[in-house]
């Protein structure tokens, strides 16, 4: 897994890279079934769209197929569920978040020949449709609907405040390693929220393979070790963060944590 965090991820489709990541975090990820299901959906789409000769009409038909007949949709009831970060579970449940739904949509759509690209807009992942000699259009993969730049600007203001301004880079096509890095952070956050600390620790260990000295990632690893009662290791990670980021508001809180842990017996796991 570790050697994949580079140009190799750009040689894969995003959904394939996500499956590699999923399996590294949770070895029980059903990669073989997920790959088979993706190919099955591609073949089904090819058969159903065979008679549609106009490219744009064919894409509209694919859009209906994905969100209506196959019933992929955003998981409004449990948006932060870690299942929404795992491609095999999203394929099984037909529910996900923008980046996981977008990755599946991109995989199938690109196999069908549509000019699709991924965009990491500040508020969420988007799919860009770039028809020849036309301005790009943007699809919200959570809903399966087009969104205008005016709507995107409103999303940005809602997220960052009234002074937020649209920037060209917000709508640029993004490379897979960038998406995978953010995906990893999302998975870790969800797993921490669910108290699945062993899997969350794998997320942190993976992140540290390509940013080895990131004090914030090391701080998070310390928190996970603390939850696993590995106090000596947690204290070392917290101390590293304190030394590297002494002005961070969290440093004083962690100093108290290090002091408290020094009085506890170390438990090895």
Polypeptide structure, described:
With 269 residues, the chain is an alpha+beta fold. The protein folds into 2 domains: 2-171, C8orf32 fold (Roll), CATH 3.10.620; 213-261, no CATH class. Helix content is 57%, strand content 9%. It has 12 helices and 6 strands. The protein has helices at residues 7-10, 14-25, 31-48, 55-69, 87-93, 98-111, 149-160, 176-193, 197-210, 215-227, 231-244, 249-261; strands at 73-74, 95-96, 116-121, 124-129, 137-140, 145-147. A 4-stranded antiparallel sheet has the order 3-4-5-6. The protein has a two-stranded parallel sheet with strand order 1-2. A hairpin with a 2-residue loop joins strand 3 (116-121) and strand 4. Helix 2 packs across helix 6 and helix 3 (31-48) packs across helix 6 (98-111). It is globular, with a radius of gyration of 21 Å. This is Tetratricopeptide repeat protein. Residues 34-184 form the Protein SirB1 N-terminal domain. Belongs to the UPF0162 family. It holds the Pfam family TPR_9.
């Amino acid at each position: 897994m570790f050697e994949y965090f580079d140009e190799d991820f750009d040689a894969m489709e995003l959904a394939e890279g996500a499956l590699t990541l999923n399996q590294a975090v949770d070895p029980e990820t059903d990669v073989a079934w997920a790959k088979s299901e993706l190919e099955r959906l591609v073949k089904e789409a090819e058969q159903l769209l065979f008679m549609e000769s106009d490219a744009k009409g064919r894409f509209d038909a694919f859009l209906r197929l994905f969100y209506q007949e196959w019933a992929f949709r955003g998981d409004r009831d449990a948006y932060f569920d870690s299942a929404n970060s795992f491609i095999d579970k999203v394929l099984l449940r037909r529910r996900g978040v923008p980046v996981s739904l977008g990755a599946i949509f991109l995989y199938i759509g690109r196999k069908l020949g549509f000019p699709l690209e991924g965009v990491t807009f500040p508020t969420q992942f988007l799919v860009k449709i770039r028809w020849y000699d036309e301005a790009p259009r943007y699809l919200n993969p959570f809903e399966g609907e087009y969104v205008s730049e005016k709507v995107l600007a409103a999303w940005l203001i809602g997220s960052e405040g009234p002074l937020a301004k649209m920037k060209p880079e917000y709508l640029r096509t993004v490379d897979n390693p960038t998406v995978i890095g953010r995906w990893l952070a999302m998975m870790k956050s969800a797993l921490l929220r669910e108290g699945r600390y062993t899997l969350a620790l794998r997320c942190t260990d993976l992140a540290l393979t390509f940013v080895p000295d990131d004090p914030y990632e090391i701080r998070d690893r310390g928190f996970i070790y603390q939850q696993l009662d590995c106090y000596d290791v947690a204290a070392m990670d917290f101390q590293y963060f304190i030394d590297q980021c002494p002005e961070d508001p969290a440093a004083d809180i962690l100093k108290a944590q290090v002091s408290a842990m020094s009085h506890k017996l170390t438990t090895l796991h």
